[in-house]
Design brief:
- The chain is α+β, with helices and mostly antiparallel strands.
- Helices cover 17% and strands 40% of the residues.
- The chain has 3 helices and 12 strands.
- The strands form 2 sheets. Strands 2, 4, 6, 7, 9, 10 and 12 form a 7-stranded mixed β-sheet that branches.
Length: 206
Amino acid sequence: MLHRSNSLHALIPVAACLAFAPLSKADIFIGVDFPNTPDVDFPGSPAATVNVGSSITADVRITGLDTRVVSAFEISLAFSPSILQVQSVSQGSGLNLGSPANSSWSISTPPGAVDTQEISFLATSVLQQFQPNDLVLFSITFLAVANGTAPLTFSNIEVINGAGAPFSPAASSDGSITAVPEPAALAVASAIAVLGFASWRRLRKH
């Protein structure tokens, strides 16, 4: 398990004298998305359902960047450990453009949270040219271990622009995952309930 490195600001190099589009807080959005759940819309406040014992992947995405770039971020996402367990956390490609050597990436997974940090080594001009307007910062695969609804809540969001300065998205949205019993478990429970009811009726007749 990797842990956070030093202060995010201390690790960001001084940006070269490059023009940078002014930040508008009207259109930048960060939130949770479920890529394998097509009926869940992004952006919004998505809610997904998974069977207990199965896995589900949640992406943390930022959109609306236009000509602006993300050169670094530090984000913490909290969840309910009694319902979900982290199986894996994977790095997005938006800050390294597909080559892990182009950025510094670290994660830590204290109980009930995923803390992530990434810093791009690429020049702002390169990110402006190739970084997409809508990008996945990182992805978490959860295993559902018990019934219930687990909110996915941002407890920290810090995003650094191409000039090395922090900015806040216009809006962010949490998500949630509801874990339900497996169909087989429901069938067994139903069968037990039917047998119990039949036994109760027989006892009443005697």
